[in-house]
Amino acid sequence: xxxxxxxxxxxxxxxxxxxxxxxxxxxxxxxxxxxxxxxxxxxxxxxxxxxxxxxxxxxxxxxxxxxxxxxxxxxxxxxxxxxxxxxxxxxxxxxxxxxxxxxxxxxxxxxxxxxxxxxxxxxxxxxxxxxxxxxxxxxxxxxxxxxxxxxxxxxxxxxxxxxxxxxxxxxxxxxxxxxxxxxxxxxxxxxxxxxxxxxxxxxxxxxxxxxxxxxxxxxxxxxxxxxxxxxxxxxxxxxxxxxxxxxxxxxxxxxxxxxxxxxxxxxxxxxxxxxxxxxxxxxxxxxxxxxxxxxxxxxxxxxxxxxxxxxxxxxxxxxxxxxxxxxxxxxxxxxxxxxxxxxxxxxxxxxxxxxxxxxxxxxxxxxxxxxxxxxxxxxxxxxxxxxxxxxxxxxxxxxxxxxxxxxxxxxxxxxxxxxxxxxxx
Length: 425
Description:
Elements: E1 4-14, E2 28-38, E3 42-46, H1 53-60, E4 68-73, E5 76-77, H2 83-93, E6 94-98, H3 109-119, H4 124-137, H5 153-165, E7 171-175, H6 183-198, E8 202-206, H7 210-213, E9 218-223, E10 226-232, H8 238-259, H9 262-268, E11 285-291, H10 298-301, E12 306-310, E13 313-317, E14 323-327, E15 333-343, E16 350-360, E17 365-370, H11 376-385, E18 390-391, H12 396-402, H13 406-416
């Protein structure tokens, strides 16, 4: 069974889209984000105000929908879930903790924690058992009969965490959970979250505080709606991880504001060594292939993850935003296949076909889903020049030669590959 809980492919978010182009451009809260969350992860999302941290958290947690791109959570496409199914899904799988604890003021601490279970029609005996277990863990047993206004900020936030955990979620989303707490209560809260993570609760946390971020396993730094830097703690101590985080924040904020353009910073950023070499083979990555001498489609490229081919060297970023490189000379075989995705255009709704490209190496298989259209035939020719064997059971190369334009190919695929599609009424 896969350990991947959330996959986000090229998601963007535009608030108040400029459909008629009156303003001349759209302002992206998120711009072409790839993200992957595995079971047991503890990811801290950082960035300056307005960088898109909370927007990303809201999209990943199903509270909001991206303007473009696709999100799969527990193997389900969010766009295909009915509103009622989505509510049930949140109740069963997700927990939420916010900066303002959002407790209901006229309910006791006990009833605030019990609210999700009551709405879920749980038995009273089970409700009491779970609440007392959590209250003991969070040291709020003595305030269960009090009301929120009678409790301290730390007690209210621990109550909010108990409420988030009472339905035993698999993923806990936290948006600035320590924002209103002093350092002592913040440490106590983060220690508890770390213990939860050790018990296999997966956590995604947004914070401005590098000390809070250092409790996690991965730090993801956002700027202007894009992921600029990702570092993994691996075997480092919390102090070493904190120093790495502070170095990234200090360098990026100063350079972005005063010295260089974003593209210069991205190229000058130091490469972070990642110990787990299996990161390249975790899941299928949606990419747009780019090679010198072959004209790129700029509209596709700006909303895609680029895969660069320089000679025989391949470089791209996976969904965890780790830099991956491999050499085509190490590839034993290339396998080509098709996938079909239903796109709803109203009366013009239809299935759209994409090419699946698997590069088999002694280390593992690099898996891609391509956004390339008419230009992919050039890459097939290049693979032939390198004498890489190609397995093409659906005769994709032959189809490109017979139907050079994408529209004709798509119609041909719909006629000849009906095993990939299943039309719904």
